[in-house]
Structures are given as C-alpha cells and as structure tokens.
Amino acid sequence: MNNANRNSNVTIAPDGTLTADSFIENGILTEHGIAFADYYDNAFMNKTFTLSAFVKPFGRSVITLSMSNYTNADARANFNISTGAILSYSNGPQDFTDVSGTMTNVGNGWYRCSLTATKLAFSNHIVPNIMLNNGSTTYYAGDGISGAYIWGAQFEISSTMSEYVPKVAGSIVKRFSNRITAN
C-alpha cells in the first residue's frame, strides 16, 4: 500500500459477496495506490503481461493501472471508472511496448479494467500497481477521504485478460500456469 489506507470487506463485490475493499488516499503530495510484489526474474523479460482489477468509484473517478520496471520506465493506462472510458495509454520506451487496455462494465457501478504490455529486456523487474488519479495525474495531494473500491486484482503472463480466479486464503491458485498472482 502506497500512501493509501485499505479497508477490507466494506462493499458488495461483483460476485455478490461483501468482500470488496476501499482504498482511501492520504493527504500527502505523492502517488496513492497499491504496489504489488516486485517480480524479478530473467524469464520475465520479453514476455507480455496483463494486470486487471474490478474497480468502482469512491470519491475518485479515475484510476491508473501500471507496470513498472522498478528503475526508469513503466506502462500505464488511465480509466474513467465513472463514465467507462479509457482515457490514455503510455509506455516507458526503454522497457515496455505494445501497451493496450480494456474496460468492461460488469454492473452495479463496477468495471473490470486491464492493462497489457510487453516487458522488454532493460530490467528484469516488473511491479504491477493500481493507483488513484485526481483526473490529471497520479501525483497529487490527497484529501484523505477519496478513493476507489477495488476487488479481484490479477496479474498474469498473458496477452489477454483471463477469467478472474479468486485466491482463497491458505491455498494456491493452479488453474492457469501463466498466473502469477490473484488477490
């Protein structure tokens, strides 16, 4: 968690259970969001990855999905989770290419957003992130009360987003050999 507070199981998730979390920005001038594990392995270079999550507005209407190489480059997609519009894509030219995204309305104000990018060989690190966005940038002074609901984040080696497979506490998800993590 980066400069945001997580409140677990506060609203109904897309699957109808009370398991979706809220992420609320703090008041610091910085980026606010969730940084997942730093995956590093030479086997990850020159592979295509997809990061996806179910998101719903809770004070912020724009979120950014990102994959960073932990050094000097990242791939990003910005999504308006109030209107259902993909706003923009960008890539760190030294280490990511073929950046794209999808956004699917799954009902009750929820969207499933995805970012896909090919990781090149500049660095063997890849860090998936979900960041809050004030509508212009991910780097801003938060208000301490705004954020987003997030559920079902998934990061996988794949050129497309696959069906969400929930991770059950104490178990390992083995459905797909390409799945790195499911939360």
Description:
The protein has 183 residues and is an all-beta fold. 0% of the residues lie in helices and 57% in strands. The chain has no helices and 15 strands. The protein has strands at residues 4-11, 20-25, 29-31, 33-35, 39-40, 47-58, 62-68, 74-80, 85-91, 96-107, 110-119, 125-133, 139-141, 147-157, 179-182. Strands 1, 2, 6, 10, 11, 14 and 15 form a 7-stranded antiparallel sheet that branches. Strands 4, 5, 7, 8, 9 and 12 form a 6-stranded antiparallel sheet that branches.
List the helices and strands and how they pair.
Layout (H helix, E strand, L loop, with lengths): L3 E8 L8 E6 L3 E3 L1 E3 L3 E2 L6 E12 L3 E7 L5 E7 L4 E7 L4 E12 L2 E10 L5 E9 L5 E3 L5 E11 L21 E4 L1
Antiparallel strand pairs: 1-2, 2-14, 3-13, 4-12, 5-12, 6-11, 6-14, 7-8, 7-12, 8-9, 10-11, 14-15
In short:
With 183 residues, this protein is mainly beta. It has strands at residues 4-11, 20-25, 29-31, 33-35, 39-40, 47-58, 62-68, 74-80, 85-91, 96-107, 110-119, 125-133, 139-141, 147-157, 179-182. It contains no helices and 15 strands.
The main sheet comes to: 7 strands, antiparallel
Oligomer: single chain
What is the averaged pLDDT score? 88
- List how many beta strands DSSP finds: 15
Given the structure, what is the number of helices?
A: 0
> Shape from CA axes?
globular
Notable features of this structure?
mainly beta, 183 residues, 6-stranded antiparallel sheet, 7-stranded antiparallel sheet, single chain, disordered C terminus
